Amino acid sequence: MAELNVRGTAGTAREVELIARIGAGDRRALEELYNLYHRRMARFLMRLTRRYDLAEEVINDTFWVVWRKARSFRGDSQPSTWILGIAYRKARNAFRSSARFAQKNLAAEPAPLTSEAPADTEELRDWLGRALAQLPLEQRLATQLCYELGYSCEEIAAIMNCPVNTVKTRLFHARAKLQRLLPQLARPASVSATASAAERVAPLPGESP
C-alpha cells in the first residue's frame, strides 16, 4: 500500500528533477518517470477496470499531459499527487465514455467463485475487486486512492479537485456499500469470511470503528 504515495525524500527530489527536465523538453527524463510509475499505475487502474487496453490508454494519456504541462509544475504538491491528479481525470473520462467498460464491469454477471471461501490472497482480492466494480465511479476511485495507494483525505481532495468533506462522504458511503456487498457475493457458508474482509475497509482516522 502507499507505493505511489510514499517515495522517500530522495525519490521525491528525483521526481521533481525529472519533471523540471521534462519541462525543458528532455524525452529521456519523461521515459524515466514513465518507467517509475507505469507498473504501479497499471496495477491501480486494472483494479478499477480489469481492462488492460483501457488502463494503458489512461497511462499514455496521463504522461502525454505530463509532457505538455511539466513546466507548470511548481512543487506545491508531491509529484505523485500531481501525476495522480492527471491520471484521475483521464481515468474518469475514459471510464465514463466507454460503453464496453460499463457493459462488462457494471451490467454483466460476475464470474463464479472458485470456492465457498477465499482460499488465498488472490481470491480475496478478486472478491474485493468485484465488490468495488459495483460502486459508483467516484466512490471507487476514492476508495482505491485511500486504501490501495494510501493517500490521505487531503491528498485525495487535491487529486480529485474537490473538498475534503466530499472525499470523506464518498469513502463513508463506499465502506457502507462494500460491507453490504461482500457478504452478498459469497455463498451462505462463507459469510463469515467475507464479513472479515469487509472489516478490513477500516474507518477513517477520528471515526468510530
Short summary of the structure?
The chain is mainly α and 209 residues long. It has helices at residues 8-23, 27-49, 52-69, 79-97, 99-107, 121-132, 137-148, 153-160, 164-185, 191-199.
What would you say this structure looks like, in words?
The chain is an all-alpha fold. It has two domains: 1-108, Rna Polymerase Sigma Factor, Chain: A; 110-203, Arc Repressor Mutant, subunit A (Orthogonal Bundle), CATH 1.10.10.10. The chain contains ten helices and no strands. It has helices spanning 8-23, 27-49, 52-69, 79-97, 99-107, 121-132, 137-148, 153-160, 164-185, 191-199. The longest helix has 23 residues, at 27-49. It is globular.
Give the topology, please:
Elements: H1 8-23, H2 27-49, H3 52-69, H4 79-97, H5 99-107, H6 121-132, H7 137-148, H8 153-160, H9 164-185, H10 191-199
Helix pairs in contact: 1-2, 2-3, 3-4, 4-8, 6-9, 7-9, 8-9, 9-10
Total separate domains: 2
> How many individual helices?
10
- Indicate the proportion of strand residues: under 5%
* Superfamily (CATH H level) name of the largest domain: RNA polymerase sigma factor, region 2, helix turn helix motif
Classify the helix fraction into a percent range.
over 70%
Detail the poorly predicted runs: 104-120, 187-195
Mean pLDDT: 77
Q: Specify the biggest β-sheet.
A: none
Please write the CATH class name of the largest domain.
Mainly Alpha
- Terminal CA distance: 21 Å
User: What's the CATH architecture name of the largest domain?
Assistant: Orthogonal Bundle
Query: Radius of gyration in whole Å, from Cα?
Result: 18 Å
Shape: globular
What's the total count of β strands?
0
| CATH T-level topology of the largest domain | Rna Polymerase Sigma Factor, Chain: A
N-to-C order of helices and strands = HHHHHHHHHH
